Amino acid sequence: MTNLNLDAFVADLERLRSEVKKALANVADTEALEASRIVFLGAKNGQLKALQKGLGKLGSEDKPAGGQQFNAVKKSVEALFLQASQRVVAPLKNTKAVEQIDVTLPGSPIRFGRVHPITQTIRRVSSIMANLGFEAVDGPEVEDQWHNFEALAIPNEHPARDPLDNFYIAVANTNRPLLLRSQTSTVQIRVMEQRKPPLRIVSLGRVYRPDTADATHYPMFHQVEGLLIEPGATMAHLKSVLRSFASSFLGGDVRVRFRPSFFPFTEPSVEVDMEWNGRWIEMGGAGMVDPSVLQSVGYDPDEVCGFAFGLGVERIAARRFGVADIRDFYRNDIRFLEQFHDRGQA
Amino acid sequence: MIVSLDWLADYVDLPEVDALTERLLLSGLNHESTKIIHDDAAVDLEVTSNRPDCLGHIGVAREVSVLFQRPLKIPTVSITGPEPPHSFSVAIESTDICPFYSARLIRGVTVGPSPDWLVRRLETVGVASVNNVVDVTNYVMLECGQPLHAFDLNSLNGEKIIVRRAKEGESFVAINHKEYKLTSEMCVISDSKQSLAIAGVMGGAETEISLETTDVLIESAQFAPLPVRSAARALVLGSPSSYRFERGPDPAAVEWASCRAVELIRDLAGGTFAAPAIQAGSLSSSQSTIDLRTHRVEQVLGVSVSLQRQREILQSLGFVEQESGDDVTRWLAPTWRRDCTREIDLVEEVARIEGYDCVPENIPISAVPVQRSPRERMVRVVSESCVAAGFCEAMTRSVVGERFEEFSSPWGDAPALVCSPPLVQGADRLRRTLLPSLLEARSNSLSSGSSHGDLFEIAHCYLRREDESLEGTVPVEEPLLLALATGGDFFYGKGFAAAILERLGVYEWSSAERPVSQAGVEFGVTYHPFESAVMQEGRSAEILFHSKGEKSRRIGVVGEFSEGVMKMCGFDKNSVGIELRLDGLEFTTKYESTLLSLSSFPSIDRDMNLVVDEGISWASVRAAIESTQCDALESVHLGEIWRDAERLGEGKKSVVVSIRLRSSKETLSAEQANSFVKAMVRSCQDRVGAALRG
Predict the structure, then answer these.
(1) At the topology level of CATH, where does B89-281 sit?
(2) Cβ(B189)–Cβ(B199) under 8 Å?
(3) How far apart are CA A123 and CA B398, in angstroms?
(4) In this complex, do B393 and A337 lie within 8 Å of one another by their Cβ atoms?
(5) Is B373 exposed, middle or buried (0-12, 13-18, 19+ CB in 10 A)?
(6) With an 8 Å Cβ cutoff, are A136 and B376 in contact?
(7) Distance, CA of B669 to CA of B632 (rounded, Å)
(8) CA–CA separation, A193 vs A299, rounded Å?
């Protein structure tokens, strides 16, 4: 077998280079470029690959020069391909005709759900209260008389304990009647029994009172009740906290007003109004924690004092969302629920 | 309490009406409305239950006199006359209900219409005029707050009034001419033969004052609040009298009202009476002596009120200073303020008269760090996930009807707790599962024309605990549940449940043992066939929760609803329900994520086509693969399952398993991958009798 002539080998290389040049000059798109790439640079049957096989057939004295020539041509061919690829890079704009669509047709539906407006309101209230240092707590809805009444200074003969005014639960042990809690203050008692002052908590959740359901009453509703126990706490602190709350909730600088009232577990007791659109609107009840309540959980009323306040969530939510009939909150009609977008308020 | 301004002006000079109501509003008598009636104004004031003294015009006038610092003029009563006949007497058998009873007899009256001034004043406060005698008793009650009753003396049997308990089942015709069945817990006023009145609640038709009446007995008594309230409620027979007795009128007004009434009757209807009353029992009157530390007012209010001002306020309210000092003053509460027994009560009196406007509202509050509780964060995560998936949050009643009892609870078999009265008509069972409520809401939404009925709820259910006598705790458990109802099949439901659980850091395991591929994960769940009356047989599962060192427990159910449920709810397409018990899962979630470094080496994917018996579960195939403890096993996925009796044999199925292998240390070679796969196939042969196909 004779060695391949170096000159012939170099001539083959040069021919390849000029063929590549010629071919690439006519290449107009990426597909044609890829086709040419396979013809010339294909890893298996490309022409360059074929020539590389010739390198092994050169005489041993010709091999270094042949190798140099091969590499130079390979580089140059690759550079030509690179140039061409930069030239024919696919245009962004589609050149082929595609079917035109009616862009006014509806998109594929992506649906988000909604958080219930009552939950939204509770979250809003508790996030404002969290900014004021109040931690959200919860507790049982089925309660005993101690937590629902006695510890809250509601004695046995108090009208609030009347069987017709509460949802008592049939139990085997009649010495220990149970009922659905009528206020979330029960949770405050439970927390005070467990912890020492200072305390700042908001208890929230469902409460139950036998009211006939109408536009403004429902036998099940939600309360948010705040409690602060700290040495030196006064009604001035109470008023300041509620003013901060009202200002955050309604926006702007909102004034609050106290009207004397009566609750068994606070004294002095007040109704709280906030000024909204030039009118005083009822916000809830509040007061200084009654000394007997502090005693019932083992606190010394001369050492610590505190205040408590309660807000009716349904009432706030009804006003906030323009709901005229609070029974709508419990009908769970999707057409109702879908109207309340949480827009990041809480 | 409706107040006539014309009437009120008898006792105190009144300011202009708006100033009056505004000031009353800010000191404890909430102003509801003012109505002009003829030349008078009816001012409706809300009186809190601790202030029975304001259930009469004089009490309201006292507030006005204190607030506007104007003198209070209370009519004096001074009656003189002969001793009453000794033949008439009063006996109290139930002193616990009636501590004191006073009767005055006035004879020779002419019953007729009341004079205009009286008719008009009663009309203003919403009381219809009856006749001059009855009107006087109402007038005096509305004047001083002490209820009175007038009996036609000649209709009495005998000359004795007996205050006693009613006979069980005794029937009584009240002044409204309706008949009532009494119980032995109620107290009546009777003569020697029959009951004349239900004590403190209402008089009887038999002895009512008529145009023929000539002799009258005026009753002024004390009745205990609780029995009066119980009787009034039991008979659904509330009256202005019972309303006042429930709150406790001024003991000092008992005698005053009696005298005032007979004087007015004499003036309006004529007649003569004896000056001393016929009485029984002893007046129950307790006046508290209270020490007020001067600095206490500022300690509570956060603003100081001078000792001088404190004195002024308390004195004007009728408190009597018994001992004076700069640091402490001792006060005797007036008879009409039995609500005042403690220092804090005096602080409140000073505060409400001084006005809460003086309390500052811009005290800085110290900052305290607050964190959301794990429970609250978990609930947020779950609710956000449901909302993102297109579900609306529902809020359904905690108490349901008996019909929902057919839905067995996944959380316990004990019967539901029952409340009385029912929450709403027909609903007295504390629910043990949320699913029926949610199905009802879904059904309502779909039938009301909503675009969908995809609802979720996060709420408690209520379970009886075994030992009801357990001291110190409430024998009821309240698991926090997530329930969800939507269209779709079991796999959609399971996928949803699994996604929620994964957000809480709980992954599906192939067995109760933690699989190797779940390194670092301490909690897992497995799914098992579940039977329930409301779910489609063979298409529902319970979810068991596993955690090291703990007994496995059920935390969820997921399944397609049974045909019966579908029919009941009117669903025409498959519906699936999920109920997850969330309490306990707040501790499975790491809320701060820690980065696990990503392997920079390539992965190798392999498929295994395994032929197994029909009864072999996917979980057991997965468990067999995972049991090889291959560190490089990144994931195991189900490719497909197919059956072909001819090619695979009867009772066989082909399970295509896709595994991904990746090492964190090196690029796996084909040989390494092959040996891992080989081990896995062998494990499947050994454990589930699998044969490799193709």
Answers:
(1) Phenylalanyl-tRNA Synthetase; Chain B, domain 3 (3.50.40)
(2) yes
(3) 20
(4) yes
(5) middle
(6) yes
(7) 12
(8) 9
- Is A146 an interface residue toward B (CB < 8 Å)? no
CATH number of the domain at B374-587, please? 3.30.930.10
CB-CB: which of B226, B393, B474 is closest to A144? B474
Beta-carbon separation of B392 and A337 below 8 A: yes
Return the CATH fold of B2-68: Phenylalanyl-tRNA Synthetase; Chain B, domain 1 (3.30.56)
Q: List the pLDDT tens digit at each of the 346 positions of chain A.
A: 567 788 888 888 888 888 888 888 888 888 888 888 888 888 888 888 888 888 888 888 888 888 888 888 888 888 888 888 887 776 677 667 788 889 999 899 899 999 999 999 999 999 999 999 999 999 999 999 999 999 999 988 788 888 888 999 988 777 788 999 999 999 999 999 999 999 999 999 999 999 889 999 999 999 999 999 999 999 999 999 999 999 999 888 889 999 999 999 999 999 999 988 888 988 899 999 999 999 999 999 989 999 999 999 999 899 889 999 999 999 999 999 999 987 776 6
C-alpha angle B299-B300-B301 in degrees, rounded to nearest 5: 100
Nearest residue, CB atoms, A267 vs list B348, B371, B394: B348
CATH class (in words) of the domain with range B604-692: alpha beta
Where residue B480 falls (left for φ over 0; alpha for ψ -120 to 50; beta otherwise) is: beta
Domains detected in chain A: 6-88 (no CATH), 117-337 (3.30.930.10)
Query: Which pLDDT tens digit goes with each residue over B370-390?
Result: 988 999 999 999 999 999 999
Query: Minimal Cα distance from B396: which residue of A?
Result: A330
Contact A258 B359 (CB under 8 A): yes
Contacts of B292 in chain A (CB under 8 A): none
Cis peptide before B251 (omega within 30 of 0): no
| CA B524/CA B555 separation, integer angstroms | 11
Shortest Cα distance from A158 to chain B (angstroms)?
Answer: 8
- The reply to whether B89-281 shares the fold of B2-68 is no
Residue numbers of A between 124 and 143 with CB closer than 8 Å to B: 130, 132-138, 140-143
Task: Report the candidate in B25, B46, B618 with the shortest Cα–Cα distance to residue B352.
Answer: B25
Tokens of B80: 């003189």
Contacts of A137 in chain B (CB under 8 A): 373
Query: 3-state SS of B410-470?
Result: CCCCCCCCEEECCCECCEEEECCCCHHHHHHHHHHHHHCCCCCCCEEEEEECCEECCCCCC
* Cα separation, B206 vs A322, whole angstroms: 54
pLDDT digits (tens, 9 = 90+) for B514-548: 665 555 667 899 999 998 888 988 999 999 999 88
Task: Please list, residue by residue across B115-138, b when 16 or more beta carbons sit within 10 angstroms of its beta carbon and e when fewer do.
Answer: eeebbbbbbbbebebbbbbbbbbb
- Chain B nearest-CA distance from A243, in A, is 7
The residues spanned by each domain of chain B are 2-68, 89-281, 289-356, 374-587, 604-692
| Strands annotated E in chain A | 135-137, 142-144, 168-169, 178-180, 199-208, 220-230, 256-263, 266-276, 279-289, 305-312
String of DSSP letters for A159-197: GGG-GGGS-EE--S-TTS-EEE-S-THHHHHHHHHH-PS
Question: Which residue type occupies A79?
Answer: A
Query: Which listed CATH number (3.40.50.720, 3.30.56.10, 3.30.470.20, 3.40.190.10) goes with B289-356?
Result: 3.30.56.10
- Asked if the C-beta of A116 comes within 8 angstroms of chain B's C-beta atoms, the answer is yes
Are A141 and B478 a contacting pair at CB < 8 A?
yes
Contact A130 B366 (CB under 8 A): no
DSSP state of A239: H
Alpha-carbon B290 to chain mean position: 34
